Amino acid sequence: MKAIIPAAGLGTRFLPIAKAVPKEMLPLGDRPVIHYVVAEAATAGFDEILVIVSRGKESIIEYFSPNPELEHLLEAAGKSAALEAVRAVPRMARIEYAYQETMRGLGDAVRLGRAFIGDDPVFSVLLGDTVMRHASPLGAMAAAWESLRKPSVCLEPCPEDRVSRYGVAGGREIGPGVFELDRLVEKPAADAAPRLISRDGSPLAFHAFAARYLFTPAIFDCLDATRAGLGGEIQLTDAMERLRQADGMLGVTWTGKRLDIGSPAGLVEAARELADPQ
Ligand code: UTP
User: Fold this and answer.
1) pTM given for the model
2) Domain coverage including residue 120
3) How many domains does the chain have?
4) Residue nearest to atom 23 of ligand 1 (CA)
5) Cα of 9 to ligand 1 centre, how many Å?
């Protein structure tokens, strides 16, 4: 199966380092953030991957490419563990790249994957700056697709004072942890944000999109029909709302921990979290 990993954003919250090092290439231990994202996709069966990059982010391409010279040096020096670590990276998945010319938002980045996805019935999107700790939600999302044939978005609880930063979902529970969504809103005010309703009819905490999506190729027509919204960007959430209206959309809740390294504080927190063997 195929996946799209958008990693073209300007990363303004990481300036000045993002001038020279893409935020997706910042280290968590001995590997960059995007390594974890590619590994997650491949492990869940999405091992044909399109990474969306932009000018100046070629180190991402270099990282996932074989390096025969380095391999030769390590082999000659008898450094077999290091050699294996180097060889394992390009073997994780088959990766292609597309360039986003102007950073017109996540929706615009995903749109660049149309030709790559082709006629595949379903594909995943993983944000390149977010690591999912513990199990990936992609397994549950793929299972929901198998039984209900609907696209989905991973959801996690969101404190009320943060709903205005994220895409937020409303809907009704139709199975354990699976919701039929009836509203998707990007960065709503807390008093206008939709809510999930549990099977027994009680409202749950606010739930925000958690960096993983499972789409049908119909999302591409929805993206084409979406005009630039907040901040002049093509909002993926607006296109998702169109897709929901046409074909329905599921929300799949997830109990792991999302490590968002979009900001320096998030990176520090992620490094701490991954250093903890729990
Ligand atoms: P963010 O929403 O964190 O945006 O992107 P950003 O522009 O990179 O960061 P700031 O806000 O300027 O600090 C979430 C993911 O989507 C990608 C990013 O690279 C990141 O992995 N993205 C975002 C794109 O590929 N293209 C875009 O136009 C925007």
Assistant:
1) 0.97
2) 2-275
3) 1
4) 9
5) 4
List pocket residues of ligand 1, CB cut-off 6 Å.
6-13, 24, 52, 100, 103-106, 108-109, 127-129, 262
CA gap 195, 1 in Å, rounded? 32
Residue closest via CA to ligand 1's atom 8 equals: 9
Distance CA 55, CA 99 (A): 7
Burial 181-190 (b: 16+ CB within 10 A, else e): bbebbbbbee
Dist. CA 127 → ligand 1 center (Å): 8
* Cα-to-centroid distance, 24 and ligand 1 (Å): 10
CB 140 within 8 A of CB 193: no
CATH of the domain at 21: 3.90.550.10
The Cα 60–Cα 143 span in angstroms is 31
For the record, the structure tokens of 111 come out as 């749109």
Indicate which residue's Cα is closest to atom 15 of ligand 1.
Answer: 127
Nearest atom (ligand 1) to Cα of 105: 28
Q: Residue type at 197?
A: I
- State the DSSP string of 150-172: --EEEEEE--GGGGGGSEEEEEE
| pLDDT tens over the chain, length 278 residues | 999 999 999 999 999 999 999 999 999 999 999 999 999 999 999 999 999 999 999 999 999 999 999 999 999 999 999 999 999 999 999 999 999 999 999 999 999 999 999 999 999 999 999 999 988 999 999 999 999 999 999 999 999 999 999 999 999 999 999 999 999 999 999 999 999 999 999 999 999 999 999 999 999 999 999 999 878 899 999 999 999 999 999 999 998 999 999 999 999 999 999 888 66
